[in-house]
Amino acid sequence: MAEQFQHAMLPQPTHDELARQNFVQSLRMHIFRNISPGNKLIYEKLAEPKFEQQHQRPPLNRYEIREVMQHEPYYRWASALKRINQEILWDAVNSSVDRQLPELIERAKDKGGELGTLTLDPNFQIPTHQKAVDIHCMPGGYHSEFTDDDVAAGATYDRGAYVYGVGWFDLFT
Fold first, then answer.
1. 166-169 LR contacts (CB < 8 Å, sep 24+)
2. Which residue did the predictor score with more confidence, 36 or 135?
3. What is the pLDDT of residues 106-148, one digit of tens each?
4. What is the pLDDT of residue 1?
5. From 120's CA, which of 11, 45, 63, 68 has a CA 20 to 30 Å away?
6. Cβ contacts of 163 within 8 Å, gap of 6 or more
7. For 171, which DSSP code?
8. How many CA atoms lie within 13 A of 21 on its CB side?
9. Burial class of residue 128 (count of CB atoms within 10 Å of its CB; 0-12, 13-18, 19+)
């Protein structure tokens, strides 16, 4: 796997933090390569025949497939593993970000260089559908600020996308 592009705002993991992030990547690969494909067999051998017996026709769309699959223990187990992996991904990344947040905030401050600007309408409200859930399980989502000049969401997403994508999802290379 290619190393993530290094830049000033990228949180640097300690040895133990990197080990946790590598574990999350390895577990994700195992789930998606070795466990998730079993859902196809479960669908073909168990779920689809049950649906056809009950409805006298094959499922017409993904909603009908989901309805029958959500009752299959294997599917539920594989889905739970994916969810848990997503949650521990953010825990593994957030430990690096939280530890370095004051330093990251200081690095992000305007140093008088020629950067662009962004001015938000002071009446702008984050849409309810964005605030109601943590999108992709990322704590606080992509919009939350918990301290002045908070850069945690960006730093978390940058490293988290890399860990999630196992290197092929690096946004800056």
1. 166/1, 166/25, 166/28, 166/29, 167/1, 167/2, 167/3, 167/4
2. 36
3. 999 877 777 777 888 999 999 999 889 998 899 998 888 999 9
4. 55
5. 11
6. 21, 24, 25, 89, 92, 93
7. T
8. 26
9. exposed
What are the structure tokens assigned to 89, written together?
């991904």
CA–CA separation, 84 vs 48, rounded Å?
A: 27
Q: How far is CA 5 from CA 8, 14, 56, 158, in A?
A: 10, 17, 54, 10
| Mean pLDDT within 54-83 | 97
> Do 150 and 163 touch, CB atoms closer than 8 A?
no
Q: Do 92 and 99 contact (CB within 8 A), yes or no?
A: no
Residues in CB range of 93: below 8 A, 6 or more apart: 11, 21, 156, 159, 160, 163
State the pLDDT confidence band at 167, using cuts at 50, 70 and 90: low
Digit-coded pLDDT (tens) for 76-117: 999 999 999 999 999 999 999 999 999 999 999 877 777 777
Amino acid at 162: Y
Distance CA 112, CA 135 (A): 34
